[in-house]
Amino acid sequence: MSRLPVRNGGDDVLCLFLEPYGDVFWLKPGDEFTVLPGEGVPDPQFTVEMVKHRLIVWVFEGGDPAKVVVDCTVVDSGGNELPEGHQWPDGRSPY
Hints:
Layout: E1 4-7, E2 14-18, E3 23-27, E4 32-37, E5 44-51, E6 54-61, E7 72-75
């Protein structure tokens, strides 16, 4: 199964921003999360863009930009599924 591990190696929180719905997950320094596409997605491919304290992730079926994968799960290093907005720091915006 394809997966995208994401680790915050910085000293500030990092926003993992999943498109197309804009779901956000906040990584504290040292945190590692993994983005998993839904079951049965053939050949999922990830596109990642870094924009000031944000990692924006798109998942495409077979790399086709017309086939955006909308069913994704984010898990922590222990394999626990994380809810959207996980660890959202007070006063911080993902934008």
